[in-house]
TrEMBL record:
This is Thioesterase domain-containing protein. It comes from the Eukaryota. It comes from Lophiotrema nucula. Residues 95-117 are annotated as: Disordered. InterPro entries: HotDog_dom_sf, PTE-AB_protein, Thioestr_dom.
């Protein structure tokens, strides 16, 4: 079977995407992990295989901005840009740049965050969406929108706490149709933590 191609040129062709990718406040950039064709027992097969098609999610990059003044240097930014353009080999599978955020969940007291503050940890998800995901003519299926919001919130928790989690509750408000094909950005931020319970907010731009 021919391996799927991550069409990162969909991102690098857009100036607003390049600004995000070169933002020194973004300390982690991760490609979608490519799975062997016959691998059916892997985490997140839905994004890694089912939606990894030219007529579905053509390109996918997750990013993490920890806030609190944490930054990567200009050399790191250049390496990530080169990797996106194919001029640099990617080391760890899928990883373009990864820096330790030094975070953990040693304390279990309740913590509240201001989702409007630049110091609040934030995950970003860039996706290039093709018409194969349509629910109407050139209109993204609402279930895909909900799935992408759920995905970016899960990414946020995995980056912030270096652990995965299961979704207990998801409330979605649809404000307008998403036209396809399109490159969209999803953002997620932590709102509150109480023991193992983590509340997040996410939106699509």
């Amino acid at each position: 079977l021919t391996p799927q191609t991550e069409h990162l040129e969909d991102f690098t062709a857009l100036e607003w995407c390049n600004r995000i990718l070169s933002d020194p406040g973004v300390t982690k950039i991760q490609k979608r992990v490519k799975l062997p064709p016959l691998n059916t027992d892997a985490p997140n097969n839905f994004f890694a295989k089912t939606l990894f098609k030219d007529d579905a999610v053509r390109a996918y990059l997750s990013l993490y901005r920890p806030g609190k003044g944490q930054r990567r240097n200009t050399v790191d930014a250049r390496v990530s840009s080169d990797a996106l353009l194919g001029r640099e080999k990617v080391g760890e599978e899928g990883a373009i740049f990864s820096g330790s955020n030094g975070s953990g969940r040693a304390e279990k007291k309740e913590i509240s965050y201001d989702p409007e503050s630049p110091d609040t940890p934030e995950a970003l998800l860039l996706v290039s969406l093709a018409p194969g995901l349509d629910g109407g003519i050139h209109r993204l299926h609402g279930g895909v929108t909900a799935t992408l919001l759920d995905q970016v919130m899960g990414i946020l928790i995995s980056y912030a706490h270096e652990n995965t989690s299961a979704t207990a509750e998801l409330n979605v408000k649809y404000k307008k149709a998403v036209r396809t094909p399109a490159v969209v950005l999803l953002r997620a931020r932590i709102v509150r933590e109480a023991g193992r319970w983590i509340e997040t907010v996410a939106w699509m731009e």
